[in-house]
Amino acid sequence: MLVYDGCVQFEVVLAAYFVQQRGEIMTYGLEMRDVRSAEGFQLRPDHLLSELDPEAIDAFIIPGGQPAGILDDPILAEKLRAMNAVGKLLAAICAAPIHLSRAGVLEGRKFTSSVYLEREGDFTTGTYTDEDLVQDGNTVTAWPNAYVDFAMALADRLHLFVDENDRDETVRVFREFKRG
To answer: Per the structure, how many domains does the chain have?
Structure first.
């Protein structure tokens, strides 16, 4: 998972929680320094993004936030293209699909983003679809209000549920807000 100044942590916390149940979350940053999330939490990446080995991960998650600080970062674009080339799951929520688009990852694919209409010029590839969640190939994109569906889609794609009963209970608790 990418962490950067202004990243919106709430959009990816549930996805990270699901991954932690069966695997490990590693955070990556453009620099090895503390960053502050949009919610005010101080975060320190586990690794530099430049050190990420695309073969060593199953998925890469980019939280939304103000894209300007990392827009067109050459390391981010290079790593996104490398992960895409080997078919890794790439997930971006809220404004984060901008980075997938500008790296060329969304070429020939559908996507969604809550900032598309106000920042249409920042999207250079892909076809915008006005839906809360869009899955196309190895990409998953979502609006921030769909953070539960985003997390569920990642869990499905990464085979994180033990069985259908586990998935159904997760839906009841996290999407329907009913007791387990």
So the answer is: 1
Separation between Cα atoms, residue 145 and residue 164, nearest integer Å: 25
Confirm whether 5 is domain-assigned. no
The tens digit of pLDDT for each residue in 122-177 reads 999 999 999 999 999 999 999 999 999 999 999 999 999 999 999 999 999 999 99
List, for residues 44-94, the tens digit of each pLDDT value.
999 999 999 999 999 999 999 999 999 999 999 999 999 999 999 999 999
Within a domain: 2: no
Residue 117 domain-assigned?
yes
Note the pTM of the prediction, 2 decimals: 0.96
| Interatomic CA distance for residues 10 and 68, integer angstroms | 19
Range(s) of the domain holding residue 35: 10-175
Looking up residue 136, the CATH number of its domain turns out to be 3.40.50.880
Cα–Cα distance between 180 and 165 in angstroms, integer?
Answer: 11
The reply to whether 163 falls in a domain is yes
Q: Which residues in 32-104 belong to E strands, given as ranges?
A: 35-36, 42-43, 47-48, 59-62, 89-93
